[in-house]
Amino acid sequence: MRIRIDHATRYDYARPSRFIVQMLRLTPSSSDGQQVRDWRIETDVDARLRRSEDAFGNIVHSLYTETATPHLTVRVTGEVATADTGGVLRGMRERLSPLVFLRDTALTQADRAMRSFAKLAAGDGPSLDRLHRLMGAVNQRIAFEIGATDATHTAPEAFGLGRGVCQDHAQIFIACARAVGIPARYVSGHLCRSDGVIEQEAAHAWAEAWVQDLGWVGFDAANGVCPTERYVRVATGLDSLGAAPIRGTSYGGGPGALSVKLSVRPVQQQLQQ
Asked: Are 206 and 187 in contact (CB under 8 A)?
């Protein structure tokens, strides 16, 4: 299917920021499961954008401003043609050994309760079967609730609460997979919802785990499914910080306000409208 994405992030500063530096992981790469047909990044201020790749192979744009800036909007628009690969990632060049993704971070380090849960939920047998059981267990254990957590919550904290958003489901799954010896990583991207909802609160997140002789396989514990043609994969990292769509800092702007507008829709529906 063809999916159109329109994603705008706006910063309004209390007073003009003297300079802003941001790292943007907003641009997807093509693979066997998705072909990027058109993609643009725009800002509403005079800013420099420099494209590169990070250690994980993500496309990164470095944004710099050099004049006083009272507000900043970063907007991405584009279309991606997707195909269902059964959740298996193919056609991507991997720079790092899967063993790198056994490494814990402050956000994904499992505590004793999570390690016990992971061992019981995953059980024994082939890795793929264990991961499917783990995904189902996380989906059942963690209720989806917007506002229950924020970006600073760790996997153990969200696990203890028993509720969270897709970021929490992904990081809990990752922490549990690593706890039973399976490499796993965080994925940020977009989901074209099957219920017809176009305007969304935020981008989506899920996990990928390494399965011997199969490669990286996606697991969306928030929805209890492997990614389909409705998913657009953008960036990966060890945790949500490493794959965050926008990270950066400003100098001299003081407290500010952040707002996000996101629409994800099938192109056919857009044309009909």
From this structure: yes
